[in-house]
Fold:
Amino acid sequence: MSLPYEVEILLRATLGTLAVGIFAVVFGLILKGIDRKVHARMQMRIGPPVIQPFRDIKKLLHKQTIIPENAVRSIYNNAPILAFAAAIAVMVYLPLGPFSPLLAEGGDLILVLYLLIIPSLAMVAGGFASGSPYATVGAQREMVLMMSYELPLASVVVAVAWKMSSLGFGSSAFTFPVIMSFPIWEHVGAVGAIGAILLLITILSVLPGEMSKIPFDAPEAETEICGGLLAEYSGRNLAMFMLADAVKIVALGTFVIALFFPWGLTPTLERTLDVDIHKYFGWVIDFLFYMFKLIVLLVAAVTFPRTGFSRIKIDQITDVYWKRFGAVALVGVFLLLLDLQVL
Structure:
């Protein structure tokens, strides 16, 4: 006896979301562990084991959750849940290596951009609701940081989608299946390639800001404002924020890969070795390759900068993102436009 169509769709969506969520949490924590390990090695330290983030989460889940006296309890307790739920929601609209987005027909680039804002907004709300001056300062800084990196990020997304629309895809230009099927590098000339490189540099510069990592970690600055947004969080609430951060790391990396590095490894292996790789085996190869790309992207865009640079002030962050990387993004857009005219 078969299930009704609506029930079957709901069941698939539920199980798919659960699977995607588990993967994002587990691999996100692994990425955080790799980041800490590589960061320590670059500083000539041994560093914690890669599984340390799992131990941190386990410890926090067994600790008491302390709620400040001046906190707005409903917002304070629900902000971590909202941040985690929004981070998981982003993942179901993103392609995971060879696998199309779970909800491919229900969202596009613009929706993902909106969803990526929600975890940061939840942290801001939680910071203000904490009733702590440190958390309030951190929340104010987080709002400034968000307004700073959203302009260059939006410029990159619009530029890539506009390039797809110039190929005749219309409104489908904003969907991930189209962007991944027609990589931007394969549809630009020399001038456009330079523009695409500038856009790639711009979006890579946004990653540390989105993740609140050095040099853009002013909202949490432990040595200045005692952790800022998270100063008053503990126990399960803090664990939820940490899990949301882990999932967001995977989501951001996947987002960049989908825009600029969507290729799988299977076609290259088939051409090089002159063999036909079974479909399911090819999925495994491409998924492992996708995970490898995530690790390389995290180390290059987040670990190296936070090891080589020091924290910059919040007013300097605005200057860097708006005046410098914003200008780089606009030059990249102009070169893409010029490339279209040349072609």
